[in-house]
């Protein structure tokens, strides 16, 4: 599939491609369930995945893991707070 692509190029491409796909899925979930926390997580993942390749070959993985991981932890905290609130009618 990626005949002729060097391993350096692929190590920049794949983490960002997976992040972009995950962010897109979060945007779909936000639209489906009208969830603001999923919207924020999806947009943040799209931004991080779009900017990480500019950090270069070994550093992009560090950016994706630290910033992307922080986005997921913040999203989990926001979801827990959202679920703990009493439902309003």
The amount of beta strand, in percent, is under 5%
Query: Can you write the helix and strand succession as a string?
Result: HHH
- Main β-sheet, in a few words? none
* Cα end-to-end separation: 52 Å
The total of helices stands at: 3
Keyword list:
89 residues, elongated, mainly alpha
Record the SSE blueprint.
Elements: H1 7-33, H2 36-51, H3 59-84
Helix pairs in contact: 1-2, 1-3, 2-3
Descriptive overview:
The structure is a single chain. The protein is mostly helical. The chain has one domain (8-84). Helices cover 78% and strands 0% of the residues. It contains 3 helices and no strands. Helix 1 packs antiparallel against helix 2, helix 1 runs parallel beside helix 3 (59-84) and helix 2 runs antiparallel to helix 3. The mean pLDDT is 91.
Compact summary:
The chain is mainly α and 89 residues long. It contains three helices and no strands.
């Amino acid at each position: 599939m990626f005949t002729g692509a060097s391993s350096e190029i692929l190590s920049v491409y794949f983490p960002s491609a997976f992040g972009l796909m995950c962010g897109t899925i979060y945007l779909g979930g936000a639209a489906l369930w009208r969830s603001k926390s999923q919207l924020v997580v999806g947009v943040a993942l799209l931004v991080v995945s779009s900017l990480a390749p500019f950090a270069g070959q070994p550093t992009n993985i560090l950016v994706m893991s630290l910033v992307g991981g922080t986005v997921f932890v913040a999203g989990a905290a926001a979801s827990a707070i959202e679920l703990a609130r009493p439902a309003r009618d």
